[in-house]
Specification:
The complex is a heterodimer of chains A (227) and B (46). Chain A is mainly α. Helix content of chain A is 78%, strand content 0%. The chains are: A mainly alpha (227), B mainly alpha (46).
């Protein structure tokens, strides 16, 4: 595990540098949207990192409810925090792309709306953890919220097609797609996504370490009270 | 196209600034907790 912790930041750095080279030097400029389309290579990977983090929250929360594992609870908390960070980046970079392409910063498109709801659910999770105290019941309520919240992700995925939103489906060749037909554009998107997932994994590992230290402080304070 | 370069720059800056601030916050919090753990151990042992 320690080897993995040591390798993760370096792996993230190398793949991230490769992604930056592809995004700014190699990949061709998209014909209709122009240079602003390159925002896709941050925005979409950040969205995938968000989804991965929230799936980890749900999985770790289920393990916590089932086995009472504090390590699983710490992983859920860490993944929720990193997931909210990446979801915030999605909600910031999306409007920056939308302004020159759609002519507006924001529209209540189904996918955008469901993404805001996803952000609010997990921001609520973090508030519950931050202000609810160290009570075991608070951790259990948060775990339930972490599991229920992940149900929003499939809705976000299908909202482009089923709810007739205007948000582009990036990886499609059907009508209404984003135009990522060039193989190099797809390769760049995959490399950028791998870089973002490695970065997210490293941040989660860092946050888990902090959560472990916080637990140690609580234990030592209790010990000091009994001395 | 040059007008839109500003949007690309803004998005890129937002992503890296957000990640940088979060890593800095985690590093600072980690240092504070390690200091506190050292202090608590010293107090328990004395």
């Amino acid at each position: 595990m320690r080897v993995l912790d040591a390798l993760l930041p370096w792996a993230a750095l190398v793949v991230m540098l490769l992604a930056q080279w592809l995004i700014f030097v190699v990949v061709p400029t998209e014909a209709q949207m122009g240079i602003v389309q390159r925002i896709f290579y941050f925005h979409v990977p950040a969205a995938w990192a968000t989804f991965l983090c929230f799936f980890v929250v749900a999985g770790a929360s289920a393990v916590y409810l089932w086995k009472g594992s504090r390590a699983a609870d710490r992983l859920a908390l860490a993944s929720a925090e990193v997931g909210v960070l990446f979801c915030t980046l999605v909600l910031v970079t999306g409007p920056i792309w939308a302004r020159p392409i759609w002519g507006v910063w924001w529209t209540w498109d189904p996918r955008l709306t469901m993404t805001v709801i996803l952000w609010a659910i997990y921001a609520g999770y973090l508030m519950l953890r931050a202000f609810g105290g160290a009570d075991e019941a608070v951790a259990r309520y948060a775990a339930v919220l972490g599991i229920v919240g992940v149900l929003d992700i499939p809705v976000i995925r299908v909202s482009v097609r089923l709810l007739h939103g205007i948000h582009p489906a990036v990886l499609t060749t059907k009508e209404g797609g984003s135009g990522l037909t060039d193989p190099m554009m797809r390769t760049t998107l995959y490399v950028a996504s791998l870089a973002m997932l490695l970065l997210a994994a490293w941040l989660v590992a860092l946050r888990v370490r902090t959560a472990r230290l916080e637990a140690e402080v609580v234990g030592l304070r209790r010990e000091l009270d009994h001395v | 196209m040059s007008d839109n370069l500003g949007y690309l720059f803004a998005a890129y800056t937002a992503v890296w600034l957000g990640i940088f601030l979060y890593v800095r916050r985690l590093a600072r919090r980690g240092r504070e907790l390690e200091d506190e753990i050292r202090d608590l151990r010293r107090r328990i042992e004395s």
